[in-house]
Amino acid sequence: MTSKPFGTVPAGAKQQPTPFELHVEDEKLQDLKTLLRLSPVAKETYENLQDDGSHGKFGVSRKWIVDAKQYWEHEFDWRKEEDHINSFPAFKSQITDDDGKEFDVHFTALFSQDPSAIPIVFFHGWPGSFLEFLPIMSLLREKYTPKTLPYHIIVPSLPGFTLSSDPPLDKDWKVADTSRIMHKLLLSLGFGSTGYLVQGGDIGSLVSRVIAATYDECKGMHLNFMLMPGIMDNASPDDELTEQEEKGVKRLEDFFDQGHAYARMHGTKPSTIGLVLSSSPIAQLAWIGEKFLAWSDPRTTTSLHTIISDITLYWLTGCYPTSIYTYREMKELLYVDKPIGYSYFPFELAPVPRAWAEKSGKLAFFKSHDKGGHFAALERPEVLLEDVEAFVKVAWK
């Protein structure tokens, strides 16, 4: 139990989670400052000078790294970010897997006191974290009170990410394993009797799809990222695509041609890249910062503060090498025989057309937007929230 507004766990919970507040030791923060000061930035090259102020066709620019390093080292205040994080109710639950292994699962939540509140779980992706959904949670706690909130909002940290337990060292961990742990978390909160809905982007969309296809308690899913192995097999010459969707397919093709190298590295040599990027905060700044820059719509771009907050959390929790396990797993497309919602953002790194999405499950809600990218929950939180609330009205019976 926590005294924070929206912090009262539903009465039907099977086990009581432990309230949690994040506090990073001063020594860790000082070590980060020292590493930032001592970490060199690569010398100028033809490639790293090609940029539009942040990144170019060869990747993140040297100028952006220099400016971001300056901000991170001298202006960014982790304690202020920590205070904001701790303004939301957060918990840890000990979840026992089928083999008896125990996981500490972190989640941030807004619990309603309305007995008919609908549980909605938001799953982050890579290189994101639960921080992605704090803007949406801010909107909800401004719009509703604990008594009027029509939903229970649960935002977990996936296993291997930031504040949850890592995958085991003696097992090749899969998306299905993460999905199972997340489902068990929701059952522990008492949502087995009511059912729940899932929402996700990026890796969170894969977790959402596996859960929706596997567990009866999940009543439907809303996605803002529809790409999954096999989804492109749904393409047909007879598909009617809008002009915007045709441009999106070209963007998808460009992503696989020019923007997919990081994923191949994650999938084929996770040990090597995990060791490399854990050696320097500037290495993570370049690797992760590039994704935020290239995958966000320039019109709704993610702020430098938000990018640094995310990377700082990754660095302080040491989670990068344990967060990339999903990239070496290829699966067949899972058909979801339940209501699906899909929000289409044109600057998504892989904008899947509606016609393809319709063949992957029972599409009950679709909304196409004129701007927004891969990090929709950060770039356009008001719009994504509106879509999720609209989806709930058609999906929850």
TrEMBL record:
Single GO term (MF): epoxide hydrolase activity
Listed GO biological process terms: epoxide metabolic process
This protein's record includes keyword Hydrolase: yes
Residue ranges of domain Epoxide hydrolase N-terminal in the record: 18-133
Record's keyword annotation contains Hydrolase: yes
Keywords linked to the UniProt accession: Hydrolase
Annotated catalytic residues: D202, Y327, H374
SUPFAM superfamilies for this protein: alpha/beta-Hydrolases
Stored Pfam families: EHN
Similarity comment: family membership: Belongs to the peptidase S33 family.
Name of this protein: Alpha/beta-hydrolase
Source organism (scientific name): Ophiobolus disseminans
